[in-house]
Amino acid sequence: MQQSFPFVAIVGQEELKLAILLTVIDPSIGGVLVTGHRGTAKSTAVRALAQLLPMTTVVAGCPYNCDAASPAPDCLHCSRKTSNLKAIRRTVPVVDLPLGATEDRVVGSVDIERALIDGVQAFSPGLLAAAHRGFLYIDEVNLLEDHLVDLLLDVAASGVNVVEREGLSIRHPARFVLVGSGNPEEGDLRPQLLDRFGLHARIRTVSDVSQRVE
């Protein structure tokens, strides 16, 4: 994610901050949806989430962030190495899914560079792979294209991303906590996707002049 504003420097918006903190403490809650008008620090607060997350242990070089103590059996990287998996420490990932992202960018695609240079078919993991065992953040989630919403619903339900295209048939783990923000005046969120959020924080514009200045 891009460099964020310090979480502790956000003034007001206590409901929003509480929802984010609860999601960090217990990801099994099911993620959080933040809705409110423009200028209410929705994106600022969510992007500050990365500062609050603990370190985790992953397999070095694994694009799917597999747990070094128990790599996923369907991981394309770790399943090829039955031993000598090196463990490293890193922050739990927070991955941005931008509105303009293509399906290939989200789910992954053929690695064109390897195809041209080495003449082999290889998979280039997408955003879902990067978000495995972490958080996937969607700003303006209510404006996300329908086909990407359908895709997210399938992966969120199964915890597995399945890619079948251009002669590739790939399965990899994709279990993540969904975090979304949006302005309800700009469009409604599909009920099926709304059900994927364990918490919903509705926030209002701070009207107190001193708080806005601070």
What do you see in this structure?
Strand 8 and strand 9 form a beta hairpin. Helices cover 26% and strands 24% of the residues. The chain has a 5-stranded parallel beta sheet with strand order 4-7-10-1-11. Strands 2-3 form a two-stranded antiparallel ribbon. Strands 5-6 form a two-stranded antiparallel ribbon. The chain folds into 2 domains: 166 residues, Rossmann fold (3-Layer(aba) Sandwich), CATH 3.40.50; 37 residues, no CATH class. The protein has 214 residues and is an alpha/beta fold. It contains 8 helices and 11 strands.
Can you give keywords for this protein?
214 residues; alpha/beta; Rossmann fold; five-stranded parallel beta sheet; two-stranded antiparallel sheet; 8 helices; 24% strand
